[in-house]
Design a protein that fits this description.
This protein has 2 domains: about 10-20 and about 90-220, HAD superfamily/HAD-like (Rossmann fold, 3-Layer(aba) Sandwich); about 20-85. The protein has 9 helices and 8 strands. It has helices spanning about 20-35, 40-45, 50-60, 70-85, 95-105, 115-125, 150-160, 175-180, 210-220; strands spanning about 10, 20, 90, 110, 135, 165-170, 185-190, 205-210. Helix 1 (about 20-35) packs across helix 3 (about 50-60), helix 1 crosses helix 4 (about 70-85) and helix 3 (about 50-60) packs across helix 4. The mean pLDDT is about 95.
């Protein structure tokens, strides 16, 4: 990658570009409080954030979709999250400098996420990223979610970038699989919301970054 300038750098959102865990933790523990349950430790919730609301209901209440109370908890969690989608969420430390470096070098960057636009769009706007990112692709914009490559191809089309020279960065195995399916270079980030960080080395990513600083060096 050092030998060839990437046509674009695409990022997963939660756990890769931004730290959304504090708001997930707050909302889940608020919901548990409403049901007379004590707060769960932040670390216990954090590692499941990339798996979305279904994982939050499982972690918070032990409910799977077939449970009679699952839909009620799932809906309530999403409503709480939508009402406070960017209260504590921030870019990961060092990420703004990384994005500025890409922008300075004229390399467009975008976001490809499995987070629905209902949450992703206001979140990106609240963080001041809407005018900076060249593409924001959510499940609402495609037929097939990651690990299918459709969203990555759409982002490249919107950016005007060659997928074969693009890079996709993510903190979940499905991100790396999606990047491979799109024939892109892939970087797995171990600082994200990963239940078993040691398994990252098994994802077959082209590169692994333990920190945002590591990621910045890989993208130089």
């Amino acid at each position: 990658m050092k030998a060839e300038r990437p046509s674009t750098v695409l990022f997963d959102l939660d756990g890769t570009l931004i730290d959304t865990a504090p708001d997930f933790i707050r909302c889940l523990n608020d919901l548990r409080h409403q049901h007379g349950l004590p707060a769960l430790p932040a670390d216990h919730i954090r590692r499941s954030v990339s798996n979305g609301a279904r994982a939050m209901v499982r972690v918070g209440f032990g409910f799977e979709p077939e449970h009679p109370d699952y839909l009620d908890r799932h809906t309530a969690f999403l409503d709480l999250y939508e009402a406070g989608v960017a209260v504590e969420t921030r870019l990961f430390d060092g990420m703004d400098a990384l994005l500025q470096s890409l922008e300075y070098r004229g390399i467009p960057w975008g976001i490809v996420t499995n987070k629905p636009a209902r949450f992703a769009t206001p979140l990106v706007q609240a963080l001041g990223l809407a005018e900076r990112c060249a593409s924001l692709v959510c499940p609402d914009h495609v037929t097939d979610r990651k690990p299918h490559p459709e969203a990555l191809f759409l982002a490249c089309k919107q950016v005007g970038a060659d997928p074969a020279r693009a890079v996709y960065v993510g903190d979940h195995e499905r991100d790396i699989e999606a990047g491979r399916n799109a024939h892109m270079k892939t970087i797995a980030v171990r600082y994200g919301y990963i239940e078993e960080p040691e398994t990252v080395d098994l994802w077959q990513a082209d590169m692994v970054a333990d920190t945002v600083n590591d990621l910045a060096k890989l993208l130089q």
